[in-house]
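README: folding subset

This subset contains proteins for which both the sequence and a predicted structure token string are available. Records are stored as plain text. Below is the entry for Bacterial sugar transferase domain-containing protein (392 residues), shown exactly as it appears on disk.
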Amino acid sequence: MLVAAGDVVAIWLASAIASQIRLGAWYGPDMGNYLIMTALFCGVTFVSAWGHGIYRETSWASSKVLLVGSYGPLLTIVSSYLLGGSPIVSRLWLLTTWLAGCALLIVFRFSSKKIVQAVRVYQDRVFRVLIVGASPRGISLGKDLGQDERGSVVVGFLDDYLRPGSEVLPGIRVLGHPQDLKEIALRGAVDEVVLIGGALSWESERVMAEMGVLSTNQWETRIAPSFSELLSSSSEIGYRGHLPLFTVNPLCLRGFNIWWKTGIEFTIAASMSLIFSPLWIGLFLKSKLRGADFLDHEVVQGVGGKNFAFLRFCSDLVPSNSALLRLPALINVLRGQMSLVGPIPIPVTEAVESQQVRPGIITMRPGLTGLWRFHEDNLGFSERVTVDLAYV
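--- output ---
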């Protein structure tokens, strides 16, 4: 109810802001159409949010918030077209209401989530979570969910390989076999069941899949993917005959987006090369006078595991800690081997290790800069993996 009320307030407030911008007043006697459309927007937003299932507490911060905030303006546009005549409301008012409404819906929902979590913790009304799969990833998830600010408590684990009663975390034990899920979940008044992928036998995973889709469940079933699975791939469901299958796609730019990004980067790289051309000429003459090499390179891994020479100035010409050291890598960008922004370039000496832990990274061109740039000097290999996956 708190979130639903927040949605209504967000739409009314967005409408008032739009009215002030377009009409010079919050509301007035000659604004009947605007009042009617505002009430309609509130109703459409509530119904669509309820229909999409984002009034469940675990789904408040859903990406569908932007979708439900767009139904009202879209309905108005379609209605104006079908009815003909002059527009029902001002186009500027409609656009402003839509933009402000989406922004306020997001702000209100995140605020509501934090408030309710704090109230739950204060009143000791927490989500009771049962984890299926006592693998290292499941145990790590249990530690995280058990933190006070999460508003949840782990009641126990179900596992194929550990005996019931085995203590997995302090005070948290294995309660039984995954096939006993229904009985244990009902007995423990469980609110959520979290399935750990890869932690169960094939038979148990099949039982979990069948049980998870039952509408009679009094709990919500969730699947916890690994961090790399979550960030390095996306999936869509399709059918082969009557058999549903997931198609796994690399989580990277494709189609028009990659052409757009490549065009922008090529333009920027070419412009920067022209701007810094006097520096190039000066350093080239300096290298000739000193009898030193002009360019140096390091062999790194590119898209699809293809190696290329990552160009840079020789350290005799430019200090190794200077941002200008990698300026020649603009040539790599112009060749299509690198991006201006992307994952950190992987030396071939680390290529074998990187393929084992981050296969999604090699689907993207390495970048001259990225999130890793902020911590480049003190990042270990595992930290670089995390930062690169966050970018992907």
